[in-house]
């Protein structure tokens, strides 16, 4: 793949999602009465879509930084497992390695793991960089748009949920691993019923424990 030219069309689906989603984040941030310049800074230094949406309401309500840090851990704990499954794409250089670990999001992970077109660490790093660039541009556009929109506009925060739903459907269609789908649904059901306050964290931990206890030979046999 011609790295630069190949990455642009490869990341177009993410761009189509990140530009409007980043814009929605920018609009919500300004609409909450927060200082506008923190929004693009957060998209550069934090870059965690779901958490950024959550942070808008928490910061507007005066929630402390410690509570926000705990929320960040719970919301983004799943990213630890993303990195483990993309270890083969980890760049060799220290700076590139750190940025790649930082820049893995749900959408980037989905693209790198399901497209089958990313085979080397350089391309993976560029995909990550382009995707964050789309999010930052969307955030800046949202800040500008917020000035012309009526305050208190409803329903914008559902955009991220819609994108996650689309990503899940595309992963299922690409992998067709119905055992993994059933396992995920079971973990979600158990965590939702018994520990709904820590639903995401507990469901993720359950899945990891199952995978650690399931030998590689058995997993390979299940896919034959």
UniProtKB/TrEMBL annotation:
Cell compartment(s), UniProt: Cell membrane
Organism domain of life: Bacteria
Pfam families, alphabetized: AzlC
Any one GO biological process: L-valine transmembrane transport
Alphabetized UniProt keyword annotations: Cell membrane, Membrane, Transmembrane, Transmembrane helix, Transport
Transmembrane portions of the chain: 7-30, 50-75, 124-146, 181-214
Membrane topology: Multi-pass membrane protein
GO cellular component, one term: plasma membrane
Listed PANTHER family: INNER MEMBRANE PROTEIN YGAZ
Similarity annotation: Belongs to the AzlC family.
Protein name per the record: Branched-chain amino acid transporter AzlC
